[in-house]
Amino acid sequence: MLPMERNLESINILRRAGLRSTPQRLAIVREVFSRHHPTVAEVYDALRREFPTIGLATVYNTLRTMTEKGLVHELPFVNATRFEVNLTPHANLVCTRCGEIEDSEVFEDGFLNEMRQRASAAAGFEPEGQRIDIYGLCRSCAEQTANKL
After folding, report:
1. In whole angstroms, what is the distance from residue 112 CA to residue 106 CA?
2. For the chain, how far is it from start to end, CA to CA, in angstroms?
3. Global pTM?
4. Which of 4, 62, 105, 124 has the greatest number of CB atoms lying within 10 Å of its CB?
């Protein structure tokens, strides 16, 4: 995507969140959408080079508003909350060694719908969404382990 198109897309995302387009907020959106599952701290650290006076609260509040408007999902983990830009049904493959998170869209939408229906029927539960995390070793960590053997 060209820089101008990326900037227009970032402006549209901020509009949908009901936020004014400031250079800092545009940079926050670009940073979040260019990373895989970043934390607030990772976004903040990356932006401090370009915006030395940016406040952590600006990053946090922008991401909070984007989450409330459904533009990103918040993924709380034990060690940090991460932000997800992939809003399609998928599983998160979480490496237990390096912490890398990769999206896996191997689940068909029908499979996820069936899971929600079963949960609803079995417990009288009204699902609003789902989050599937699968833990193990990523390819790189698995290869390192195999090479040590």
Report:
1. 11
2. 43
3. 0.82
4. 62
